[in-house]
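User: My advisor asked me to double-check a structure prediction for site-specific DNA-methyltransferase (adenine-specific) before group meeting. I don't want to rely on an old file, so could you generate it fresh from this sequence?
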Amino acid sequence: MNKTAWRSFAMSARRELIRKIGEKAHKIGITPHSIKKARRESRDVVHFDGRPLTVVETGQRESILRRMREDGYDRVVEDAACTWFNRFTALRFMEVNGYLPAKAGVLSSNDTDRRQPDMVREPLSVGWEVDKRLVNELLANRDTERLFRYLLLRLCGHLNRVLSFLFEADGDDLELLLPDGMLGKDGFVGRLTDTEAMPESVWKRVEIVGWLYQYYMTEQKDRAIKAKKKYAPAQIPVATQLFTPEWIVRYMVQNSLGRYWLESHPEDRELLRGWEFYLERPQPEGDLERQYAPRADPELKPEQLKCFDPAMGSGHILVYLFDVLFEIYRRRGYSEHRIPRLILEHNLYGLDIDDTACRLACFSVVMKALQYDRSFLERIERDGLSLHLASIQETDRLDDRDIGYLAGESGVENVRATKRFVERFRNAKTFGSLIQAEEYDKCFLEQRLRQIKDNPAVRSGDERSGRKWAELLPQLLKQADLLNASYPVIVTNPPFMGSAYMNDRLSGFLKNHYPETKSDLFSAFVEMCFRRAMPNGQLGFMTPFVWMFIAAYEPLRKRILRDTTISSLIQLEYSAFEDATVPICAFTLSNGKIGASGEYVKLSDFVGAHMQPVKAREAVRDPSVGYRYSAHAETFGKVPGNLIVYWLDQKALRLFDGPRLAGLIATREGMTTADNDKFLREWHEVSFSRIGFGIRNNEEAVQSGKRWFPYLKGGAHRKWYGNSTKVVDWASDGAAIRSNVDPDTGRIRSHNYNGDYGFREGITFPTVSSGKFGARYAPGGFMFDAKGAMGFFRDESDLHVALALLNTAVSQYYLRALAPTLDFKLNKIMAVPALIPDRREPIVSLCKRCIDIAKRDWDFYERSWQFSTHPLLTFRTGSGLVEDAFAEWASFKRRERELLKKSEERLNAIFIDRYGLGHAVSPAVDDDELTIADADREKDIESFLSYAAGCMFGRYSLDAAGLAYAGGVFDPDRYRTFSAVRDNIVPLLPSGHGEEDDDIASRFIGFVKAAFGSERLAENVEYIAESLGKKDGESARAAIGSYFAASFFRDHALAYRKKPIYWLFSSGKHKAFACLVYMHRYDRTTLSTIRDDYVQRRLLRLEEELKSLDETIAGDGTAERRSVAKKKRKSLGLKLDELRAYDGQLRRMADKRLELDPDDGVAVNMGKLGELLAKAEPYKGPDYAKDRY
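Assistant: Sure, here is a fresh prediction for site-specific DNA-methyltransferase (adenine-specific) from the sequence you gave:
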């Protein structure tokens, strides 16, 4: 299925139809801003701008204007476009399947070379009544457009007799807005019938009509969702409509309707052969037959299988319900020509708030009937048809006069009862099927309806109310019946809408009527379906899988576990639902408690929508596959929060009855500053001397006089040690944070100030992760955030045992169940069962080894404030080659990773044995599970260039370990082996500009010489250049210069989390000038130095080059030489213009002699320099594999 092509067609068709209907309205004097008056020429004809309208057309125009006065111009045009789109797609479906009365093509031609439909060539044999005189006249005039229009409208009128829900009778006002210019290859009809883009095979299934309608609404849906606002009532059906994947529909129906029938008629098990998604219990369970006996009804007849979809959309689920019902009827020996009507009149029930979707649902089920009985339309025309499908109508436009009119002269009580009936459907388009069932006097209202139709205007002025009720009351009675009924089978894909998107009216309604499931519209629908289902009925749903795990849905889980039986559930892979970024599950329930297990299929490991049905079928065929499980729902009650963790081993579940981590660890959630931009910094942003390291308690913090203190705040997935990059403003015991007041409420915004737990040794863990869980050792000296919660211990042994357990495969096994959405709240972590081996010493020893390895890894990179020197210098060999140093470094990293892997696997084995989970959990650790980096030539060379840049600026020194300068007084004498630049400015110039001695590539080569010696300098520079991706024919120096000019700042900003400390001053896209400046050495003279010593000099050089090129162009050299000079001059002219403008900016800023305060942070300080600086690319997130220096 080429859904992309369908979407493209439907979206472009919408725009085309709206435009053409607008043009059609303009022709009859209607525009968004004005309405022209008619000029009457006779009693039968009026004119608008010279266009004649008949009396009928004039009436149609007046009807359109009335609707526009009520709903607005745009709404009426939009509705007309949508109506004609759906009519055309319906006609195309009927045409392809031979369901139309015409022998010739209505929209297309059997001759693929012809662009015009066959019916305009053979209009007198179309199969429905036409005015032969008019047809012949149009043929004679070769007025193909008018002929097509006439025949089409007559066909719609003809179809109204059997498909009145979609096609109106002759004289419908939308006839007047039928667009012109529909034919032709590029016209709407031409594209609709294009068999290359949309082959006839896709039109063989009626679901295509619903698909196209959903795609037609794509732009409106996207607009509503992207606005990120509460949905208005009219937006709800658009924003929440999702077409259910076919295989999920089949699964839900087979396991609900199919299961319900087979429980009473096991003799019909032959039906299972065609049900490829039916999840049957693989083995009988004890006295299950006895438990099922009261549920079984051997006398159950197919006509009693009332199947309800309360959010039916365009009827996708109803269509497959029809297929299964047909099998059941046929199996019971019913005559095949009787079955379609029996299904439509006895079995299929549905509601929706979308009028258009309801019309398409009606069309779909009738077309399905036609598939089984090609004479079905004739039967409808002869005998009529009553469908139990309705779009919910509301009573918002009815007033007290209308209510009084309906109540009639029947007394006060009837007036009250009528008012209650009417009030029940106020805002019904917002509440939909969630409206509560209530008793009402159906006989009275039906009697009043007959009276109104017979005599609508009893009193003067009642005519308007009579017309309203004659149209609306039949619809209200129908929907009331559907809402009040109980059903043995309910199958639905309910709307998904979180509370953040609910308008106030809907939110209030849910709080009042569905208080336990108000978190989302889908969960309220699930509860509503419980109420509508008959005892022992079967229910099938497709919903987000969050209800299985998240705390907000615990009341729903309790209700399901208490009152129903989960018969089956399929959990899809996280991103497997193509039409929405929502993690999905499909499940079926029995509305009552029986002691049976349910069948569960976990597709989480199979990526891609296409893999889901394949693996689901495989699980049905082979119950022994590793991702299919049988579980009794009662066992979920053992799990904290009643989580639906069906994949947990029964022994693992029983361990929840024993001790848990909460008995070993004292936890605290951590601080919320309420303004992280103001109170948090990356440690490299502020002056190093202003950070208080090694603090043991709050008193020491206050006495230190420091402003900034190390701060733990979650971070990337990393185990054992690390992710300590932030500092918090806790000067004077956090005075600034404690006094951070919300100006609107006057309340303190921050909370959880750590108290006595601040600066204590412990372990830390993230509350949210993009992958697996990882806990880390936190030495004393840290405060901690709500996103970096901490655990504390009575003694060191408990700390190491708990940390070891949390980082084992056993904890991962439990946490995948306790926090499958990767939201690691403390109560989830503390719920992990804690079986501590008697011998702690091996665990403590292994844990300490893992911490040491992770700490060494962390400190080898610039991200650590305990970084000493670059590993290529640490692992230098006697050869003086960078390549050999990297080889030694790589060998060291391999050993470290191997040692960590063995240690983690040993810890896994110890705890797996203690928990008795050897059959469920493997001790093996994959290489990609290790959270310390491996050596990487490209990344490590890039980090070496970063370290070199640090030495150029004086942040680091070849003569001292660790930081040499990060604020304070700069001492040039600390840099003897390799000098730091005197003025804190390093120009970035591509090679060949005549200033090689002063640019960064030259300085870097000098750094390599100082660090590794001059003997192997050429080899070292070549090796480094190749590591950076040197191109063929490119010099090593040029490759290094290109990296610094094009990539260094980007990589630096990424590594430093979008808070770069080496700032890139850039003139702009033409790259006339660029230089780097170290933020901690910036002072009020820096800008004037850049301008006076670098930009001005660069301007002079470029002007000299321009003069030389002008002489070449004016000279008597070859044409080719002059042509090359002209191209160079054009480029150089752009550079000069750019640099002159930049020079002006620099001068204005330099004159301000701007000073910066590092405590303000990089973002604020870079912002003060404005357009002088290149912007750091957006930070993509802390990925340890990329975060290399």
